[in-house]
Amino acid sequence: MKFAWKILVDNSLWSNFFTAKYIRNKHVSLVDSHKGTRFWKSVIQCIPDVLWLTKWRIKEGKVSFWRDWWFDEGPLVQLQLILERPNLMIKECRLEAGWDTQLVRSLVGDGKVEQVMQVLNKCRQGADLLVWSENADGKFSSKSAWECIRIKAPKNRWSDWVWHPCMPKKFSVTMWKAIRNGLSVDDRIKNVGIPVVSKCNCCTDGGYEDLEHVLVDG
Ligand SMILES: [Zn+2]
Asked: Which of 18, 20, 91, 100 has the greatest number of beta carbons closer than 10 A?
């Protein structure tokens, strides 16, 4: 997601290269996410998530009128049909003195024109700003992005104990593997279809080596 964010806001050699190669004049949300290198596909597939969590604060107006999210309720394309000028940039709605209300009215209709004009009238000088909605300062961070996309499972009762900072990591990992049935005992090898003669190392007689035996009975 970090790279997807960079594509949207950075003016670096890196982002300019990928923009020129894959995005060109298209809106970033319309780029085919199945084309390109594996790296690029992983970047472009994150774009919808990033767009969903960001909003433009318009100043200069180099922002898509229809497809970028600058209007409070969402990108205009999601609120109504695009009847004309699908590639319109906001700055193209500017006249020498103020905004072209007639044009905006013809695009969004009487119902929405006032709301849209309210946003446009708030524009100040400067460069457009993409605001990351998950951080108070509006800046992207991988941590907050991860919090947004991760699948949250209920907290395990054992996890605090297993991953306790005082516990040597080697022990924690072994316990975690045991809980997940990932320790390579003979029983597990047999279960995946490899015939083995099992004899444990923990007893003098040598018992059948399964998880229960190694950790409890043996
Ligand atoms: Zn044993």
From this structure: 18
